[in-house]
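re: ur question from earlier - yeah i can do the single chain one, its not a big deal. heres the input i used so u can compare w yours
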Amino acid sequence: MAQTILLMIQVISALALIGLVLVQQGKGADAGASFGSGASQTVFGSTGSGNFLTRMTAILAAIFFATSLGLAYFAKQTVQSGDIQFTPSVKTEKANTSDLPAVAPAPVSALPKVDMLKTETAADAKATLPAVTQGS
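and the output i got, formated as tokens:
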């Protein structure tokens, strides 16, 4: 119940915060208002709306952060109490290997020998490569 109320408060505060940020004018708008172009467009009087909107933004941001912390606390309590059950959506079955033919591993003597310490020169590499003939 408390978690649902906190979630509702968070969604409302987030939407209000987005709205308040979009309503506010940027810092560059003050330069135009000083020459008389923006003074008549203010809703909150000739002094401007900076103080009111700034305070409301700070209050809504604090509410948003507090509800985020509260929801994180509730999520932690839910996980620790074991209320969340993990059930895989894919059923895994063990493969039936009885009908597969048995394959013996390759003997070690069949593997090529590699000398890791030997450094090969370009002439050695050329000598071991098959000759390539150009066709017509």
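The chain has four helices and no strands. not sure if urs matches, ping me
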